[in-house]
Automatic annotation (TrEMBL):
<feature type="binding site">
    <location>
        <position position="77"/>
    </location>
    <ligand>
        <name>S-adenosyl-L-methionine</name>
    </ligand>
</feature>
<protein>
    <recommendedName>
        <fullName>Ubiquinone biosynthesis O-methyltransferase</fullName>
        <ecNumber>2.1.1.222</ecNumber>
        <ecNumber>2.1.1.64</ecNumber>
    </recommendedName>
</protein>
<feature type="binding site">
    <location>
        <position position="37"/>
    </location>
    <ligand>
        <name>S-adenosyl-L-methionine</name>
    </ligand>
</feature>
<comment type="pathway">
    <text>Cofactor biosynthesis; ubiquinone biosynthesis.</text>
</comment>
<comment type="similarity">
    <text>Belongs to the methyltransferase superfamily. UbiG/COQ3 family.</text>
</comment>
<dbReference type="InterPro" id="IPR010233">
    <property type="entry name" value="UbiG_MeTrfase"/>
</dbReference>
<dbReference type="GO" id="GO:0010420">
    <property type="term" value="F:polyprenyldihydroxybenzoate methyltransferase activity"/>
</dbReference>
<keyword id="KW-0831">Ubiquinone biosynthesis</keyword>
<feature type="binding site">
    <location>
        <position position="56"/>
    </location>
    <ligand>
        <name>S-adenosyl-L-methionine</name>
    </ligand>
</feature>
<keyword id="KW-0830">Ubiquinone</keyword>
<dbReference type="Pfam" id="PF13489">
    <property type="entry name" value="Methyltransf_23"/>
</dbReference>
<comment type="function">
    <text>O-methyltransferase that catalyzes the 2 O-methylation steps in the ubiquinone biosynthetic pathway.</text>
</comment>
<keyword id="KW-0489">Methyltransferase</keyword>
<dbReference type="InterPro" id="IPR029063">
    <property type="entry name" value="SAM-dependent_MTases_sf"/>
</dbReference>
<dbReference type="GO" id="GO:0061542">
    <property type="term" value="F:3-demethylubiquinol 3-O-methyltransferase activity"/>
</dbReference>
<dbReference type="GO" id="GO:0102208">
    <property type="term" value="F:2-polyprenyl-6-hydroxyphenol methylase activity"/>
</dbReference>
<dbReference type="GO" id="GO:0032259">
    <property type="term" value="P:methylation"/>
</dbReference>
Length: 236
């Protein structure tokens, strides 16, 4: 089976791995938005005691936040160096309930169908060749009634101006080339893919990040960054 990965995308994050947990590095925005992302999940479910999968976990920023809430979390990614950073940081934090694996969602779905109460796939779909394939795997991995959370960037002129030109080239919040405009995903596309995979889409939320105050808030504006909540029906 051909793996759903882009070597160029993996190389971007491999080269930055050592700085993943530095809150003033290229990953500063990720640290700043993480409380809002984890808080959004809290609004939908208490993950304590739940089996949770973090797809595209990178260095483990969200993975650890979920483990701190009492979840049994598996973080998966295809970048080797960030996973090693994630493993070391979890050890340094003396954090229990965290497992990391270098594997794709599609390959894991062949091993562990129907094993997870909650799956997160945040800031990841815009970096793979076939997002629909990942969403289908997530549906397979979820238990009936399980919840899946996604976040990504809309594809429109405003998102291009703010998330690419502004963030990467003007403010230099992210390395140049982090995002490609053609890979960005409209909410209508994400909703269609999720429903085609068999998920019920329950909510969209916009995520607004202020790089000057370093504050992140959720609202109804999905024109740039946004989150989507979905559910696997019970009767499958």
């Amino acid at each position: 089976m051909t793996q759903n990965i882009d070597p160029a995308e993996l190389a971007k994050f491999e080269s930055l791995a050592s700085r993943w947990w530095d809150p003033n590095s290229e990953f500063k925005p990720l640290h700043d938005i993480n409380p809002a992302r984890a808080g959004y999940i809290d609004q939908h479910i208490n993950v304590a005691g739940k089996d949770v999968l973090d797809v595209g976990c990178g260095g483990g920023i969200l993975t650890e936040a979920l483990a701190q809430r009492g979840a049994r979390v598996t973080g998966i990614d295809m970048t080797e160096a960030p996973l090693k950073v994630a493993q070391l940081h979890a050890l340094d934090s003396e954090l229990e309930g965290v497992t990391y694996r270098q594997i794709t969602a599609e390959s894991l779905a062949e091993e562990q169908a129907g094993q997870y109460d909650v799956i997160t796939c945040l800031e990841m779909l815009e970096h793979v060749p076939d997002p629909m394939s990942v969403i289908q795997a997530i549906h397979t991995l979820l238990k009936p009634g399980g919840l899946a959370f996604f976040s990504t960037i809309n594809r429109n002129p405003k998102a291009w101006a703010m998330a690419i030109v502004g963030a990467e080239y003007v403010l230099r919040l992210l390395p140049k080339g982090t995002h490609e405009y053609r890979k960005l995903i409209r909410p209508s596309e994400l909703k269609r893919w999720a429903e085609t995979a068999g998920l019920q889409v329950t909510e969209f939320k916009g995520m607004h990040y202020n790089p000057f105050s370093r504050n992140c808030s959720l609202n109804a504006d999905v024109s740039v960054n946004y989150l989507m909540a979905s559910r696997k029906p019970e009767d499958v």
